[in-house]
Amino acid sequence: MPLSSHDIEMNIFPIKEDSLAQGSSYTMREPLYEETNPPRFFDRLLDGFRRDPSQRITPEDPLDEIHAAEAAQLHRPKLVRRVSPSPHYYDVRLANLQTAQSHLARKLKGRHLQMIAIGGSIGTGLFVASGRALEVGGPASLLIAYFFVGCMLYCTVQALGELAVCFPVAGSFSAYSTRFLDPSWGFAMGWNYALQWLVALPLEIIAASITITYWNPDLDKAIFVTIFLFAVVAINLFGVKGYGEAEFVFAIIKVIAVIGFILLGIVLNIGGVPGGGYIGGLYWREPGAFHNGFKGLCSVFVTAAFAFAGTELVGLAAAETANPRKSLPTAIKQVFWRITLFYIVALFLIGLLVPYDDPRLLIPGSASAAASPFVIAIENAGIEVLPSVMNVVILIAVLSVGNSSVFGSSRTLAALADQNQAPRILSYVDRRGRPLVSIVVASSMGFLAYLADLNEQGVVLDWLVAISGLSSIFTWASICLAHIRFRKAWAQKGHSLRELAFKSQCGVFGSYLGFLFNLLVLIAQFWVGAWPVDWEARTPGELAKNFFLQYMAVPVVIISYLGHRFWARTSFIKTSDMDIDTGRRDFNLPILLAQEAEDRRGWPKWKRLYKFLC
């Protein structure tokens, strides 16, 4: 039945209040034809910062969630041994329910996720810190260590992809440790991961301000700290869409720069520039392929792990993606090309173009762009303009990592707060779906960047980094171990791998390998921290300081774990007690797989190969 003109008016215009008499029907109401002014810009802006009760990182009362409640009825394990009533009792089942569904706005598209995977965390770890690694270990150690850590990380990201598609988690990887390992270990991992990104923000802003001094050393760094901090905070206040678009642009610039450098490096090596001769493997013979022996190689492992830090952000961002089953596997496959192309190939060329005894590699300050082997290689070729261009790329890369640090830390803090592992105020989410208080807290750490003009800034920041310096290693090892135990519980409860929406290409063996590699890196870090390369020339006080700077993250994690374990009376979760039902996403797999198989039958061979690799 078509609507009458009166019905249309009643749907378009607001109702006149004085026409609503008691007992009146809808048809007796009179529409208000007066013009109403739309909300002003500042009113809309302020309204966006108000709390939206329905938009939280995790549900306020997850027992009201229908799907979570049904899963809880199907599977009610005894996950914690409660010896006596205690106000500190930690309810693991409730924590699983709280992380079951995310209410964050799913505004990230597949292109955002792919560019975050390819170039999201490329920063000073590749462009600058690789120079120090080259000086310590030589070109062969540089290549071996980055390849070793790259293989470890590929296995880890594959395991993360399987867990993230099956159990979409908002904010923190600690949820996997809480669910499959030990709630107290999840607490320690969540806070350690948050600290890693909280400290990264001032570090990256200082690095950006130091990069500016490449052109003019006399500039006041505080000016640029203000500019960069404002830019990073502004991007994150635009919400996850703003973060995604910014990272998309930043990643494209970094990808183009690295590909351009690889092409230039090949030309420089074969003597393709005026006045330059053939280099080949000259620097591998003189001064040599290795420096400081096996200890030099172990020293490079830690630098390589730092360079790959942030790759796990793909899993974090997947929780805010519209279709993680479609977007995440593609993004995970991009990690392989990032490791192969941007790290292995680029650093192989660096080893061919820059000798490890170049004095510029020893320029003080880990953030100095003048110590970047990429810049040094171009300067050695006598190309005047390109070093400045490369410094602009380094500046963009540094700001990109700073942007990711606010995103990663704010989501982690908000999720920890909603799981009763952090102050509740951090769970405040406004009407635009932003964890506002967590963003403010994470951004406030950026004020530490004003230490850039002080001579002692390096000492303060070194100790801050030491607190969470090994956070990435712990996070990756926990992801691998959680994946191993998830697969064990999955099989024990009668499920087959065909029921998984995405399966790790490395399988459980890859997770075992990744976990073992992470342990080896921790052992190597202990050895290098206790007996560094030049330990004979150092005093006992200097050796003790170096050890705690390199290894202080380990006692911090252990104290956090034991403190929460004694406080909350948690216990290690047995395989039979694991909850693999709550929050598991149902993709109607039989229908989807049949559709995908039908689509693949019509693909040409080149497309099948492309889809397998990318």
Question: How would you sum up this structure, described in words?
Answer:
The chain is mainly α and 614 residues long. The chain is 63% helix and 0% strand. The protein is built from 25 helices and no strands. The chain has helices at 5-12, 41-48, 66-74, 92-98, 110-119, 124-127, 129-166, 174-180, 183-212, 221-237, 239-269, 282-288, 293-308, 313-318, 324-353, 373-380, 386-418, 436-444, 457-467, 471-492, 507-530, 540-551, 553-568, 589-601, 605-613. Helix 8 packs across helix 20 and helix 11 (239-269) runs parallel beside helix 15. The radius of gyration is 27 Å and the shape is globular. The protein starts with a helix and ends with a helix. Residues 16-33 and 55-85 have low confidence and may be disordered.
Question: Secondary-structure blueprint of this entry?
Answer:
Blueprint (H helix, E strand, L loop, with lengths): L4 H8 L28 H8 L17 H9 L17 H7 L11 H10 L4 H4 L1 H38 L7 H7 L2 H30 L8 H17 L1 H31 L12 H7 L4 H16 L4 H6 L5 H30 L19 H8 L5 H33 L17 H9 L12 H11 L3 H22 L14 H24 L9 H12 L1 H16 L20 H13 L3 H9 L1
Put the structure in a nutshell.
The chain has 614 residues and is an all-alpha fold.
